[in-house]
Specification:
single chain, 7 helices, alpha+beta
Length: about 280
């Protein structure tokens, strides 16, 4: 006579990767009763055959059968659903698929609308008026030097000349290099002023013509990461049916003079455009 393996509920739980709580629930539902319950200790014992029964229960659950439906199958001693029962479950699954696809489409639309709102917040189409500016052109060693140039060179000079800047203040840079260079960057800085003053060795006064249409984009972060925003901005320009009509301006809203953390610096890239 062959030996019949019996496992305590804890061992059975561990080997079958199911909690004891779940096993007790199956027992209450009449789906998987222990093969033996010790009348003195209350210990529950399970057999090898019950491993297969548990696997069958799991399989049926994965296919969408409820525990009550599985219980009816075992009451009929069929253990396996009939063709009719499978057909009904297929129809239920198809209905659930349609509901999930509908939910999926609604979620996609919702996400799309949020992205469009964020895009609208990030981009704007504006006209830039004619302005009087004080400009300073210099070859700087790197983009990091822009903040120092603003704070230690241009700012004090404008103050010395008695320049008044209309609120809220508008300053920007334009690059004059013919190609990218990480050093020796030929950059011109512009600060809007109320009226022209006397040129000095540091700043010259100019009148900049109006820009009828410019696409503007907010850039958060250090200046050496402008390329990321340019990639997104130029894609947006194309999508809106525009073409570039002038050198981009980088306007500085918040920088080293107000925020130590470069990740919090706010700049606005302004690109003159026109319709094809």
């Amino acid at each position: 006579m062959s030996y019949k393996t019996k496992l305590k509920i804890g061992d059975f739980s561990q080997m079958m990767q199911v909690t004891v709580k779940t096993l007790r629930h199956y027992e209450q539902k009449g789906l998987l009763k222990p093969d033996e319950v010790d009348e003195w200790t209350g210990y529950r014992y399970y057999t090898v055959e019950q491993m297969q029964r548990l696997n069958n229960i799991r399989k049926l659950q994965q296919l969408g059968f409820s525990l009550d439906e599985i219980g009816l199958l075992y009451e009929d001693d069929s253990h396996d659903p009939t063709v009719s029962q499978l057909s009904r479950k297929i129809r239920e699954t198809e209905q659930q698929l349609r509901m999930l696809m509908d939910r999926h489409e609604k979620l996609l639309n919702w996400r799309r609308s949020i992205k469009e709102i964020k895009t609208m917040e990030k981009f704007s189409i504006q006209s830039l008026p004619e302005i009087i500016v004080a400009s300073h052109r210099e070859v700087i060693p790197s983009y990091e030097a822009i903040g120092e140039m603003c704070c230690n060179v241009i700012g004090p000079e404008l103050q010395r000349l008695g320049c008044k800047c209309p609120p809220p203040g508008y300053c920007f840079t334009v690059e004059h290099n013919e190609e990218y260079t990480p050093t020796n960057i030929d950059i011109e800085y512009f600060e809007q002023v109320e009226e022209k003053g006397q040129d000095s060795s540091i700043v010259q006064f100019k009148t900049l013509p109006a820009v009828p249409t410019a696409i503007c984009m907010k850039h958060y972060g250090p200046y050496d990461c402008f390329y990321e925003s340019y990639t997104e901005l130029f894609k947006y320009v194309e999508e809106q049916g525009y073409r570039i009509a002038g050198k981009p301006r980088c306007s500085y809203v918040d920088g080293i003079w107000n925020q130590e953390n470069p990740e919090l610096w706010l700049s606005i890239i302004q690109v003159p455009v026109e319709k094809d």
